[in-house]
Input
Amino acid sequence: MHTVIVTAAGLVLLGMFLLLARFWASDRGILAVGAKAFIPVWLALTLVNLWIGVRYAGYTLLQELPILVITFGIPAAAALLVIKRTGGRRRP
Output
């Protein structure tokens, strides 16, 4: 259940980055900038989640790595999709 919550939190955080980017400028291409900014932030947060799982929850690194792939991968893939769809286009 924790994995689902963390993954959902990542998607919500991506939405917040995109919303902030949208408020920053009206150009649709700015969404790619927000998505690009999200990826390293989300990687850092998921690495902290991995460290907490190993350090305090008693899991081994090998047990936590697949969870890292899921919790980082799904929101990062969504961000990459946003980048692909909005990165090269500009509104006239």
About this structure: DSSP finds three helices and no strands in the chain. The chain has one domain: 2-86.
